[in-house]
Each structure stands twice: as C-alpha cells, then as structure tokens.
C-alpha cells in the first residue's frame, strides 16, 4: 500500500488524481472500517488512516473517506475554534482547493465561495495567482495552502492576496518546511532539473525552500502575519484521536 500511494502521488499529476478519487474513497472506507481514529472534517471513524507520502509514506495520514491529511484536519479545527469562518456566510477565495474541504465550504458560504486554480478541473475559476481576476477588497477570507512553494514569484502572489482581501479579512497561508529549516528562504531559478529540485527544495515541483523568515516574507506584502502554535493547545488525546501533525504552526495573515 505504501509503495502504491507513493508511486501515485509522485508520478500521476494532481489534476488527474482528482478526477478518480471517488472510487478509491469508497473502497478504502470499507477496508479501513473501525473506531480507533476519527476525521473531524467528515466525522467518519476508521481503524486507522491511510499512509501518505512521496518517498517515505507517513502512517495514519490520509482519511479514506474525504482525503483529509493531518494538516487539513488541523486547519479544520483551527478555523472552527480560532476564527469566525464557520459563524456565517462569507466571501471566500480558495486557491488550489483541497477536495476534503470543498463541499463543506460551498454548503456554508454558497456562491460567495470561489475556488481557483491554474489547472485543477475542480476549481470554478482558472487563474494565475500572480494576476488574480478579482477586484480590490473582494474577499473576507483567502485560503492558500501549499501553493507558494510552487509559484514563480511568491512576493507578487502575496501582494495579490493582500489586494483582494477586504480590510480586516484574513488569509491562511500554509507552506511545507523541510529539515534542516534554513534561517533565510532559499530559491534559485536556475535549478530546473526535477531530481535536483527534489534534493534541494524537498519536491521536484517546488522552486524554493522556506526558512525561518517566512512570517517576515508575508509581512512584506502589507499583510500582518502570526504563527499560531494551535496544535500544542489541544489535549494529547485529541491530537492522537485525529492524528494531527506535531508542532505544526498555522500561518494566519490579516489585512
């Protein structure tokens, strides 16, 4: 199972995987039936979660039903407990939308929930994050998770997120970190070989390795960012039940 999942996520483009997830969800939901772990996103229980990872798959990572990973389950809890995201309908821009969230967020926010991506067949709007087709001060919330490490100019992308947010609105801006985490973000556009990119940046389609300056990098766009250690506030039994990532920070930026 570990080898199969590793092969699929390394060599099959995300836009194709998203088209065929339904069948796999039904099969794995039955095969992993149980009560040991629970996904807070879909509220389904299983004997364990699926492994997930490109090279060394992590155990208890992927929900068989909704495909939420550890970081998605953590973000769901954060939005519920630390923001007003679920308190009423809002204008939400979801960039590179995660499948596990889409139906829930659309049900809550209706036609004010806009999904956007440069290639995903599931997104409502096809767009380049460097030049968003939206007016200034349009959205209450922007969700942009595990995107900035892929784009050519993350400073421009962050400025665009700042532009389309309403004053007082917030963005969630998660990115991956790879040990050892450098003090300063490293990027080099001359590195184009996929194997070299994977070695240096952690994945073959990444173009930078983020460092401890990430909050400062966000703030340069005009946003005001905080790194919230929310997961450390939760009870150990909660973290274990939902199989949440250890010590992962939530990056929330306010306009």
Task: Describe this entry's structure for a reader.
With 255 residues, the chain is of the alpha/beta class. It has helices spanning 2-11, 14-17, 21-31, 70-82, 99-109, 154-164, 194-201, 214-219, 236-242, and strands at residues 33-39, 44-46, 50-52, 58-62, 92-95, 113-117, 125-126, 139-144, 165-172, 186-187, 208-209, 224-228, 250-254. The chain has two domains: 2-68, no CATH class; 71-254, Rossmann fold (3-Layer(aba) Sandwich). Helix content is 32%, strand content 22%. The strands form four sheets. The protein has a seven-stranded mixed β-sheet. A two-stranded antiparallel sheet has the order 1-2. The termini are far apart. Mean pLDDT is 90; it is low at 5-12.
Tally of individual helices: 9
Mean pLDDT: 90
The CATH superfamily name of the largest domain is: Vaccinia Virus protein VP39
Q: Could you spell the SSE succession in H and E letters?
A: HHHEEEEHEHEEEHEEHEHEHE
Percentage of residues assigned to helices: 25-40%
Strand content: 15-25%
* Name of the CATH architecture of the largest domain: 3-Layer(aba) Sandwich
Radius of gyration: 18 Å
Strand order of the largest sheet: 7-6-5-8-9-13-12
Annotate the secondary structure layout:
Blueprint: H1 2-11, H2 14-17, H3 21-31, E1 33-39, E2 44-46, E3 50-52, E4 58-62, H4 70-82, E5 92-95, H5 99-109, E6 113-117, E7 125-126, E8 139-144, H6 154-164, E9 165-172, E10 186-187, H7 194-201, E11 208-209, H8 214-219, E12 224-228, H9 236-242, E13 250-254
Parallel strand pairs: 5-6, 5-8, 6-7, 8-9
Antiparallel strand pairs: 1-2, 3-4, 9-13, 10-11, 12-13
